[in-house]
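R.M. (postdoc): so does anyone remember the format we settled on? I'll just put the structure tokens first.
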């Protein structure tokens, strides 16, 4: 129903951290639904992605962010860092995600920015499923709590759903009282076109080598329902002819596989039969061109 819930709780929660610590995986597993694309490559997430969870009188509006990263100067990288920094402000709770014992200068950079944030910070130490010596965890958590000024520290495994209920309870008790911002069945504020483009980008990111993902963008050209069929046409922009060749693959096999995988995910998300067409186009320089970025939807 669309009627606002009175005397409930509702608030914004930013999920922040350096690239690849598992922020998007955490969002998807907290929601129990895939909203944000994930891969083992850094900088898979480019925009802040909103995931909404409503249970009874509690509504949590999660904002998944691109990982704050250092050392890259292209416009697309600056855009991602801005999106991450903006999301830290004006939220009710920040979840700072780190990866087990691995702490580097990018974690330091995140901690540095968070030192200016007024909202309570919950440190989520992720991927504990990968820790062999479980006894080493406690002293590590202790050391982190001495080093950082955070309200809580929780060890979790986003991938294995371990301790996520505890994390959620710690979040909920810090949310302000207020009416819900979204209807209870809404799971994101992003458009279906955006979600479709992200799904294509995920499949490409997972299929291809390490260099290409940063130099590839997806634009939805057609998104039209005809009867029981949803027609989607997506344009994949790359920077160089060699990248187009890699993406298409031998006899078009790679692009076909990407198309099949993307279509299956879209059918799950949109609960409809999908006809998906993919095109690849070379547009050199787009990732360092502010205007091209805006036209691709990287607005801030
Ligand atoms: P993000 O860049 O911080 O959003 O990270 P992603 O959510 O894209 O995850 C990066 C990689 O870490 C992916 O390969 C995930 O499957 C993996 N990952 C995330 N959470 C966990 C976890 O709890 N345990 C393990 N073993 N892997 C994880
Ligand atoms: K990633
Ligand atoms: Mg991510």
């Amino acid at each position: 129903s669309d009627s606002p819930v009175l005397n409930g709780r509702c608030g914004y929660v930013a999920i922040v951290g350096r690239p690849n610590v598992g922020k998007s995986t955490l969002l998807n597993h907290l929601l129990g639904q895939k909203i944000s694309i994930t891969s083992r490559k850094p900088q898979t997430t480019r925009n802040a992605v909103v995931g909404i969870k409503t249970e009874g009188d509690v509504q949590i509006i999660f904002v998944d962010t691109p990982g704050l990263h250092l050392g890259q100067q292209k416009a697309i990288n600056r855009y991602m860092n801005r999106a991450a920094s903006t999301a830290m402000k004006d939220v009710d709770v920040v979840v700072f995600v780190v990866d087990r014992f691995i702490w580097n200068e990018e974690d330091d950079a995140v901690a540095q920015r968070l030192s200016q944030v007024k909202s309570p910070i919950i440190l989520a130490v992720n991927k504990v499923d990968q820790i062999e010596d479980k006894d080493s965890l406690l002293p590590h958590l202790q050391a982190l709590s001495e080093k950082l000024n955070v309200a809580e520290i929780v060890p979790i495994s986003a991938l294995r759903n371990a301790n996520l209920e505890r994390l959620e309870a710690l979040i909920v008790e810090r949310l302000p009282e207020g009416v819900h911002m979204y209807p209870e069945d809404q799971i994101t504020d992003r458009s279906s076109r955006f979600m479709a483009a992200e799904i294509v980008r995920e499949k490409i990111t997972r299929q291809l080598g390490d260099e290409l993902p940063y130099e590839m963008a997806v634009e939805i050209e057609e998104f039209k329902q005809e009867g029981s069929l949803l027609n989607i046409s997506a344009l994949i922009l790359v920077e160089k002819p060699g990248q187009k060749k890699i993406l298409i693959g031998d006899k078009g096999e790679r692009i076909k596989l990407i198309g099949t995988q993307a279509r299956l995910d879209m059918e799950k998300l949109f609960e409809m039969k999908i006809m998906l067409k993919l095109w690849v186009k070379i547009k050199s320089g787009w990732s360092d061109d502010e205007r091209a970025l805006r036209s691709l939807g990287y607005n801030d």
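R.M.: ...and that's the designed sequence above, right after the tokens. Also worth knowing: Residues 17, 19-25, 38-40, 44-45, 67, 126-127, 129-130, 157-160 surround guanosine-5'-diphosphate (ligand 1) (CB under 6 Å). Strands lie at 9-16, 49-55, 58-64, 93-99, 121-126, 152-155, 216-226, 229-238, 273-282.
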